[in-house]
């Protein structure tokens, strides 16, 4: 059974991301499965730290991006919107180049909050970062 309120709009979400931070660092949404959202980010001059490996903060950007997009389409977007409330990340492997791929899956989908786990892996499928993101679910103001 799918977690999505409606079909996840991959093309539209990628297009909307071009003019903001997601697009500036090269994040692309790849796939929305029955219970996950997958995206990737390049490890290049935009996302490396001075030591030449993926900046941990950029892993956090990828994690929050995936959890935010996912949360936005689990709820009825006409009635609710979701915002990041808390995020943590454990960086377990350095990545010097190529791409990292993140997969966001819900641990909890509630009426007022969601908790998402985001696994970020290198191109060999090795865990580089594990993150947990809490999203607040807020009601949209009623238009009169």
TrEMBL record:
InterPro entries according to UniProt: HotDog_dom_sf, PAAI_dom, Thioestr_dom
Thioesterase domain sequence ranges: 52-129
PANTHER family in the record: 1,4-DIHYDROXY-2-NAPHTHOYL-COA THIOESTERASE 1 (PTHR43240)
Pfam families for this protein: 4HBT (PF03061)
Assigned keywords, A-Z: Hydrolase
Species per Swiss-Prot/TrEMBL record: Ramlibacter aquaticus
Family statement: Belongs to the thioesterase PaaI family.
Alphabetized SUPFAM superfamilies for the sequence: Thioesterase/thiol ester dehydrase-isomerase
This protein's name: Hotdog fold thioesterase
């Amino acid at each position: 059974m799918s977690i999505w309120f409606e079909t996840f709009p991959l093309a539209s979400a990628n297009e909307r991301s071009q003019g903001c931070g997601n697009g500036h660092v090269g994040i692309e949404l790849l796939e929305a499965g029955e219970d996950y959202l997958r995206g990737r980010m390049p490890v290049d001059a935009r996302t490396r730290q001075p030591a030449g490996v993926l900046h941990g903060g950029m892993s956090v950007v990828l994690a929050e991006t995936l959890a935010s997009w996912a949360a936005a389409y689990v709820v009825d977007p006409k009635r609710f919107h979701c915002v990041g409330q808390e995020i943590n990340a454990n960086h377990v492997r350095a990545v010097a180049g190529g791409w990292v791929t993140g997969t966001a899956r819900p641990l909890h989908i509630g009426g007022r909050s969601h908790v998402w786990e985001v696994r970020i892996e290198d191109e060999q499928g090795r865990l580089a970062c594990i993150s947990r993101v809490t999203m607040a679910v807020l009601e949209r103001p009623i238009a009169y």
